[in-house]
Design a protein that fits this description.
285 residues; alpha/beta; 5 helices
Length: 285
């Protein structure tokens, strides 16, 4: 099978139908969002794919289908497809993620692409080597054929943000290694069209950066032997009032028949009656 393909297009058609959807919890936490990612596994179909040849996943590339989901699925499994094109995942307009090619395999989606620092043009073979497919994950967004250019549905945008965020965390992909097909293709491709690129990257990485901060904070607390609970009332209060690092674990004490809990931080001691976490008091050492 060829790793090279000039364009992922949908030249066949199929009757659209609602897939039998598998629902799974989101891989990454988003404050205030309780949605679930919805998956339709298609790994049993014969999609064009190749071995990665020892290359690790380092990049993510977004495309659009220029046609309906079912047409894309049919094209990527069609023996008459001269480009042998495919993608790892396809996110339809409802936000359902169709999983086509496993991530340990190379999908055929960026064969004629140049990724600076990864591949160089080989004039003898008229190819970019190594092939960009070997180290990328390809994600297609269902989108109508040009010249139609409607806005992407909210459900689809939410899914692509959360799905790509989960891949970023799984494979350690940095912001500068996520591309549009148009960014790296050498044949003038323009997909994904009409996509809010900067907004998308901000949505993905603002939460990743928040998770990184929380991980660092967790490690710092634990290095002192004090368990870290980011939702604990005292730790939230200490961050809000800039009380510094924890100096003690939480401690309990009684006074006039009532139970209290407190904790010492660098700049102050905080305490309150147990159960009255919105009435924290602060005193100096």
């Amino acid at each position: 099978m060829s790793l090279y393909e000039p364009e992922i297009i949908c030249e066949t058609s199929a009757a659209a139908g609602d897939p039998e959807i598998t629902r799974r919890r989101r891989a990454a936490y988003t404050p205030g969002v309780s949605t679930e990612l919805r998956y339709e596994d298609k790994y049993d179909l014969d999609f064009f794919q190749s071995e990665r040849g020892g290359h690790d996943v380092r990049y993510i590339v977004l495309h659009d289908t220029e046609g309906p989901t079912q047409a894309a699925i049919s094209w990527w499994t069609n023996p008459e497809n001269p480009y042998q094109s495919s993608a790892h995942d396809l996110i339809d307009k409802r936000g359902v993620i169709w999983r086509c090619v496993p991530y340990d395999k190379a999908a055929h989606h960026v064969g004629y692409s140049h990724i600076p620092g990864f591949n160089e043009f080989n004039a003898e073979d008229d190819r970019w080597k190594p092939n960009a497919n070997l180290s990328t994950i390809g994600i297609e967004l269902e989108y109508p054929r040009w010249p139609d250019s409607p806005p992407y549905p909210g459900a689809q945008l939410q899914s692509v943000v959360e799905h790509v965020r989960s891949l970023v965390l799984q494979f350690g992909v940095t912001r500068d290694r996520i591309f549009r097909h148009a960014d790296i293709d050498t044949n003038g491709k323009t997909d994904p069209r009409n996509f809010q690129w900067d907004w998308f990257l901000d949505q993905v990485f603002s939460e990743v950066e928040h998770m990184l901060d929380e991980t660092a904070r967790h490690a710092a607390w634990n290095s002192s032997g004090i368990p870290y609970n980011p939702e604990a009332a005292f730790s939230r209060y200490a961050r809000l009032h800039d009380l510094g690092k924890p100096e003690t674990q939480e401690f309990d004490f009684g006074f006039q028949g009532r139970e209290y809990r407190g904790q010492g931080f660098s700049k102050a001691i905080v305490y309150c009656e147990v159960g009255y976490w919105d009435a924290i008091k602060e005193l100096s050492w």
